[in-house]
Amino acid sequence: MSARDVDAASDALAAAFEARGTGPGDRVGIHLQNVPQYALVMLALWKLGATVLGLNPMYRRQELRRIVDDAGAVGVVCADAEVEETLETLAGSTVRWVVSTSPLDYQSRTDPRVFATTERAAPAPDGDLVALIEEFAGSRPAPVRLGRDDVAFLTYTSGTTGPPKGAMNTHGNVLSVVTTCAAWTGVSDGDVVLAIAPLFHITGAVVNATISLLTDSTLVLAGRFHPEVALEAFAEHGVTFTIGSITAYNAIYDLPQAGPQHFASVKTLYSGGAPIPPATVERFQERFGTYIHNGYGMTETTSAVIAVPPGRKAPVHAASGTLSIGMPLPHLTARVIGLDGDPVPAGEQGELELSGPQVVPGYWGKPEATEQTMSGGRLRTGDVAVIDEQGWVYLVDRLKDQINVSGYKVWPREVEDALYEHPSVHEAAVVGEPDDYRGETVVAYVSLKSGLRLTQEELIAFSGDRLAAYKCPRRIHFIADLPKTQSGKIRRAELRKADVTGPPSPSKG
To answer: Residue 46: which H helix or E strand, with range?
Structure first.
């Protein structure tokens, strides 16, 4: 699609949404994989002055409903195969309309590795996206005037002490990150960006999709990530830049047919969202001749704000063996503070604090959480870090119990709540354990009710009916008693250290 095609299609789509009563400040959810329609809807909403509500397409019923309710969304765009479940899930919510689209539209090949079926499902009652573009062709919405403080994306991030919170990524935040990342990485006119990171995630939405818009580069979309499809896309489209989780790169590395020829056009590769072992980066470069640059960002910083400069290799922190996440990008102030809130000397550990035009003004409808996390515009990341005298930043530990799976954030209590729904479960605790492939893996420790038995496979399948796949435990250890404090609080830290593997115990009552 040319820029002219995209502009005309998003104009028509904006007019269609406007006809359904959508206007400035409204939140509209996009519940899609990495398909061209995602970008078209993004642009259409901005032309209306509306806000993009990123919805993980893997979210199931209550997960989806919780975010839609909190955001007060007025509309949702989903895949045609999801219409029935989406309508059931959102019945009685603030959503006034649901538009659907077929992933078969706007694509250059019907690849069975990407599309499970070539059958088209019936469209949503409020219309099919392509049909709406045709119906409103030549139309434009009423002009709007957006400012830097208007919210471009409402992006939900899971906390450690409560339900997901919506970070208000403003247009000013987005412009700051896009311009600094483009300058830092060297993405410019004529480049080809492959969207490996999902567009519902702030990194995919900003450092893949929006960077393509502002730099006049080509955006290549390939649906939900599939390693073989992504590998072929590198060579077929002459990809010059992408950012993705280390899990994606590991999956590509595991392909026997992968070789240096697939990355011949690449200028820079970046990875973010999950820890990277130094050996993984070295192994990838030895085989393909391409170095994976580390990067760091948060939903609250509107994606990447610390990164390894192109052409340089990240040093390793001698004390912890941690690969540096890079250096602060322009206009970001990064410092390490102690318990008293004052900066610590270079080389000493403390909490990483960030401030600058990339940091969001707050959480949607949660002033107390905003004040606690980013008082005065200074974001307390909850990560234990070291900044050396050269300005390299290292993450050496975590303050939070949050689990980071391939760049996706998992709240332990949410997984525990799902496990507790099983009638045989007495107590459950969920922790993250290091994983060379995913960064971290979700692991559960469970005690059973007296006289009952349960297998690991049964409980994993049970959680899979209630949670997105990446949130489900990969391993479950059945133990007689979970370690607790004197007040009865389960001690997750002890579970991370202990070797408590064993068969299910029927003795716990």
So the answer is: helix 36-48
